[in-house]
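User: Fold this; tokens only.

Assistant: Input:
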Amino acid sequence: MAKSQSITLKAQASKAKGKTDEVVLLMQGDLTLDNAPKVKEFFLNSMSKGKAFNVRISNVDNIDLGFLQLLKRFCWDAQHEQKAVDIAMNISDDQKLLLTRSGFGSVITLTS
């Protein structure tokens, strides 16, 4: 049985002046398929909380294609509902290199 990895997912109203409809989504820890159901539910629940989203990804232990697919889907869904998404990824140089060499470098600066 695989050991459950730690993940932190938080949604909070933006404290930025003039951004009352923006929701900040904080994501940390093990961003992999092991936690895909939690991430998917988090994104689905968050979609109704605002008209704009600031996704902040930091303190990443692991990241994989499954997480990136869920993130991309969240962006597509938001765009379909005419909502804005801004993503800030603070990941290690090794993780950036892996994403870039795997063809997912554009996800690092993904916005819609």
